[in-house]
Amino acid sequence: MNRDEKALARGLFRLKVHESDGQAFEGLFVAIMQKANPDFIPIKPQGNIGDRKNDGYDRKNGRYYQVFAPEDIRKSRGDAVEKLKEDFIGLKAFWDKTYQIKEYYFVCNDKYKGSFPTIEDTLAAIKREHKLDDCGCFLVKHLEDVLFTLPNDVIISIVGFIPDPAKIEILDYSILNEVIKHILQHKRQLDLSQILKAPDFDDKIKFNGLGPQVSTLLNNGSYHVGVLENYFDFNSSFTKQELRDTLNEMYRNALTKDWIENSVEVSRSDLVFFDILRSATPNDAEATQNAALVVMAYFFESCDIFEDPDQDEKQ
To answer: Which of 126, 215, 222, 269 could be bridged to 196 by S-S, CB 3.0 to 4.6 A?
Structure first.
């Protein structure tokens, strides 16, 4: 499965998540976990005794899961806390004497919106009180990460048929496009607490031979990376890695081109930089380019585009 197909598969998964509430989401969770872990055992309700607050577990590791998937979790956060407390009491009463509970996960269909402080506080209290090895929220971003560790045929069996990306070029379904839209929708006024620029940021600019114009663009982009970090907080690690790979591929492709430096003020590195910017924003809209610069500043700082001055020391 290539990058475009993975982006489509991810879009289909997100659609499933948003359409799945209650039992439908539990079925999606169980289907993925069974494929990912042969030791995962789903528990079906048994008559009037139910499932004893256990929707699935890995008995070898003492790892238990309880699913919570209301239509709108933000309207149900109070119910979530009460359900969490009651479910763990019921789980421990029945299952701890069968297979010791070492880890407990409250599986939430948060629809990529995140957890709540009250839920996190309750889980931390359960972990302390019952001396668990781990206890926390298992969000859809975590489920997405599990899904994309699986073989391609299994991913397709979960999300459904993936159309040929070449036949739907009219749509931009890429993760990069999704991220740029997020930045455009959430970009705020300058906040000094969000400045990404590390002490060696300027050193990297000089090391890579980038000119003052590019330096200004990267620095301005770095002032808004908090919006991008917010996106990463609510999405899977797979998403961040795919975005990193996309920018790195644009950079590597730009390096292979035969650039002619037609000005003493514009270096070959500057031309590579603007080639990446054009690739990231083919419509050339100023607002879109400004959003793309936030992404480029983030991955420039992490040396996923352009070179690390300290690379030799790290090797």
So the answer is: 222
- Tens of pLDDT, residue by residue over 89-138, are 999 999 999 999 999 999 999 999 889 999 999 999 999 999 999 999 99
Region(s) of the chain under CATH 3.40.91 = 3-159
> Which fold does the domain 3-159 belong to in CATH?
Restriction Endonuclease (3.40.91)
133 is written with which tokens?
């090895």
DSSP code of residue 169: T
Q: What are the structure tokens assigned to 75, written together?
A: 């309207």
Q: At what angle do helices 286-301 and 212-222 cross, to 10 degrees?
A: 90
Residue entry with tokens 């420039």: 300
pTM over cut 0.85:
no
140 backbone dihedrals φ, ψ, rounded to 5° = -65, -25
Quote the tokens at residue 134. 């781990």
Distance from C-alpha of 244 to C-alpha of 36, rounded to nearest angstrom: 25
Distance CA 266, CA 269 (A): 8
Whether the CB-CB separation of 79 and 66 falls below 8 Å is answered with no
